[in-house]
């Protein structure tokens, strides 16, 4: 009797599991954001944060918040959200649970373009960011162009992307060895960092993140279908090739813009969708892309912002922390799913 009652009106007003998961992520993100704005060499009490943010407060607090900490926090939030979404899209179009945007060659292509600019040109920051995004896009077009002969069959797309990625990584090493510039700063950037980020990175990232999220949610049903076998897609009458190209380019632009702004940050695009699937699987929720994409964005933002708190405390690149934490976390998730 009680089960029937719970399946009636009470169940209708109970919050959906994805909403609960999303609310928990927003809570963690808010806590990480408040800590990032408050803590540092110039501590600002939490009670003074609202006044300093909206009304300026004293000049020192206003400068630290608006020119140093807030751009860094927003860049990390947008970068994590973009990588989380891009990872979820890449895993769907390649039908590879271990897929991430770097498997399409995007990260290495964007990094190669940025390293070229750092080593041989003195460009303004907005133009350098645009070159990095263009480099990632060209690397992905090379991957898609080679894999197009097999109509972007997921296995061939993954193998082609890995080959393109290795090619550009080797090209980066060649540039660093042959250039006469100081390479320490470039090596630090290649580790992935949010240090010294400005409003230029925020202004470049937010339109891509908003557009990518809107397009991904609008195409959620298509992404659900793209995880099916090719024979089943053919029987349903779905032309998978144009959709793989469109959604793949969405993941490419999200990743390329992020790499240009922060340097390569590994494992976020790989781990964030798995954390969402793992969290929702415990409540028996089948993860559709309408929930997976925004939740992956939230989890990715939490991972990057949380890692940056420790990175800022220890003064190390955030990308290194993501690799150190992401590897064991992914192994643990895989083992628990197999159990």
TrEMBL record:
PROSITE patterns to which the protein is assigned, alphabetical: PROKAR_LIPOPROTEIN
Protein name per Swiss-Prot or TrEMBL: FecCD family ABC transporter permease
Pfam families associated with the record: FecCD
Stretches assigned to coiled coil: none
Family according to the record: Belongs to the binding-protein-dependent transport system permease family. FecCD subfamily.
Bilayer topology term: Multi-pass membrane protein
InterPro entries in UniProt: ABC_BtuC-like (IPR037294), ABC_transptr_permease_BtuC (IPR000522)
Subcellular location: Cell membrane
Organism in which the protein naturally occurs: Thiorhodococcus fuscus
Chief place where the protein resides: membrane
Keyword Cell membrane: yes
Membrane among keywords: yes
Gene3D superfamilies: ABC transporter involved in vitamin B12 uptake, BtuC
